[in-house]
């Protein structure tokens, strides 16, 4: 998140054990280092990737991934 001075502000985030930024929205914890495309399988992408090669979804148009799904996917 960027504050009013244009600097990056981590104060609204928590971090997991891999030092990835998480955002809590209600009872959902999102990992903002990853996003979900429209595919039914292998739908979690690093935010380094801006586009899914399979479904052609763009990161900017898609939601961040849920933390529990990211952990499942990479374990």
Structural class given helices, strands, pairing?
A: mainly beta
| Record field, number of beta strands | 5
Low-confidence blocks of residues: 1-7
Between the first and last Cα atoms, what is the distance in angstroms?
28 Å
Word description of this protein:
The chain has 75 residues and is mainly beta. It has one domain (14-74). Helices cover 11% and strands 29% of the residues. It has one helix at 67-74; strands spanning 14-15, 21-25, 28-36, 44-46, 64-66. Strands 1, 2, 3, 4 and 5 form a five-stranded antiparallel beta sheet that branches. A hairpin with a 7-residue loop joins β3 (28-36) and β4 (44-46). The longest helix has 8 residues, at 67-74. The protein is globular. The termini are far apart. The relative contact order is 0.18. Mean pLDDT is 88; it is low at 1-7.
In short:
By secondary structure, this protein is mainly beta.
Give a topology summary.
Elements: E1 14-15, E2 21-25, E3 28-36, E4 44-46, E5 64-66, H1 67-74
Antiparallel strand pairs: 1-2, 2-3, 3-4, 3-5
Descriptive labels:
single chain, 75 residues, mainly beta, 5-stranded antiparallel β-sheet, 1 helix, 29% strand, globular
């Amino acid at each position: 998140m960027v504050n009013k001075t244009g600097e990056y502000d981590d104060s609204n985030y928590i971090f997991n054990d891999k030092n990835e930024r998480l955002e809590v929205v209600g009872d959902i914890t999102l990992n903002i280092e990853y996003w979900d495309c429209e595919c039914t399988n292998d739908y979690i992408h690093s935010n380094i990737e801006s586009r899914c090669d399979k479904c052609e979804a763009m990161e900017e148009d898609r939601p961040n991934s849920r933390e529990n799904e990211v952990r499942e996917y990479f374990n």
